[in-house]
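We keep the chain:
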Amino acid sequence: MVITLTSLLALPGSCPAEDDFSQWLETLRAEALTKGISSATLDTAFTDLQPIPRVIELDRNQPEFKYDLWGYLDLVITESRVKKGRQMLYIHRKLLNKIKTSYGVQPRFLVAFWALETNFGANIGKFPVIGAVATLAHDTRRSGFFRNELLSALKILDEGHINISDMRGSWAGAMGQLQFMPSTFVRFAVDEDKDGRKDIWRSLPDVFGSAANFLSGNGWDSHFTWGRQVYLPKDFNHELTGLGTEMTLSEWRKLGVRRVDGKALKGANIKASLIQTSGSNDPSFLVYGNFRAVMQWNSSHLYALAVCHLADRLEGAGSFRNSK
């Protein structure tokens, strides 16, 4: 079926008619006022605001990516990205080390997130954030979630962190060089450069500081890395895989799990979980608490492994090995 603007607006669960949207917006405005958002901010945000049909189209037709680990890594960790990431680590080393001192997050992980989220800030999105989240909040499919995101976005505007014309992001409202959702911004964004604004669009101190604050707030421990690739014995009980099972490295060692170089696991009391991604030739990993913090950013195992692997590659580590 060819989806035209008229047919899209008529689809079940899509953007309702203009009059209905106007009425909905008035109700939303009243709620925002009770939460302390100023009338001036609401006037600015809601003037000529209309649902964006393209946002609904993208929401309804998200591509279903079916990659195994190797295919996904080939897609997102290219040699050119690794090379540029190493350059960025060097260029911004003073700032990144300062962030590490303040928040306890190693620089290579911050640059890896930056690389995967927006290609080092090059692709932050072109959709107006207020319009995008208002469209999805008005829509029936995930209205509760996006209503909260819209109220958070209005709070960001009201506090003066960004002008509405510059407040742009993905079709789903993810913003800036980190692709923070508005509610994530409200909880974790920081004014690292002390200019009175939390600007994750243009200020790299705020970008890296906010990313580090997010990870630190989700349990990041600078004394550890994220985990490691391991080999399993042939008779391994695969019911032990998954983040729901956590044991010490000494316990995993007793079960025959070993490092990829064949040596025994070190760090007897470190707790870890064993994960495997889909795919017959995908490797196995023991992951620590920091991996769980990455999963708070994006709950996909593939994404989390890509961030962690890119972070290691930026400091000279080799590629993952095929399973034996």
